[in-house]
Amino acid sequence: QVQLVLSGGGSVQAGGSLRLSCAASGYTLWRTDKNYMYWYRRAPGKDHEFVSSIDNSGNTDYADSVKGRFTISQDNANNTVTAYLQMNSLQPEDTGMYYCKLNALWGQGTQVAVSS
Predict the structure, then answer these.
(1) How far apart are CA 73 and CA 103, in angstroms?
(2) Which pLDDT score is estimated for 31?
(3) Which long-range contacts (CB under 8 A, 24 or more apart) does 31-37 make?
(4) pLDDT by residue (tens digit) across 30-62?
(5) What torsion do the CA atoms of 71, 16, 111, 40 make, to the nearest 10 degrees?
(6) Counting beta carbons within 10 angstroms of the beta carbon of residue 96, is it exposed (0 to 12), middle (13 to 18) or buried (19 or more)?
(7) pLDDT band at 29 (very low <50, low <70, confident <90, very high)
(8) φ, ψ for residue 93 (rounded to 5)?
(9) pLDDT by residue (tens digit) across 70-114?
(10) Does residue 107 contact residue 22 with C-beta atoms inside 8 Å?
């Protein structure tokens, strides 16, 4: 059974950087059908917000609020698909719980806290 394992959250000051990773081990279909990995976030008291996505052709998409600051990437090796989210120039409004999703499968969240 495929599981998503997240890592890389933490606390930084405004202007800092963090890199999140999301590993989907045991997923062997990444290169076959159309597949997507997504990053979402949920700020305190708010709904889930789309952050970024990447498909298995390398096409990417970003929320306007993170364009130019965040970069999504992925690699696929040893039956593990890993998505990364490099977050630069972090701002307090980027604070929240970050989640990854492989197609319709959600991973657990990882906390990102940005202080001013």
Answers:
(1) 16
(2) 83
(3) 31/56, 31/76, 35/81, 35/102, 35/103, 36/101, 36/102, 36/103, 37/72, 37/74, 37/81, 37/83, 37/100, 37/101, 37/102
(4) 888 899 999 999 998 999 999 999 999 999 999
(5) -30
(6) buried
(7) confident
(8) -70, -5
(9) 999 999 988 899 999 999 999 999 999 999 999 999 999 999 999
(10) yes
Residue the block writes with tokens 């970050």: 98
Q: How far apart are CA 57 and CA 48, in angstroms?
A: 25
Residue 109 one-letter amino acid: G
Three-state DSSP at 14 gives coil
Alpha-carbon gap, residue 46 to 116, rounded angstroms: 20
Contact (Cβ atoms closer than 8 angstroms) between residue 94 and residue 85: no
Q: Report the alpha-carbon distance of residue 53 to residue 59 in Å, rounded.
A: 8
Q: Are 37 and 100 in contact (CB under 8 A)?
A: yes
Task: Tell me the pLDDT band of 28, cut-offs 50, 70 and 90.
Answer: confident
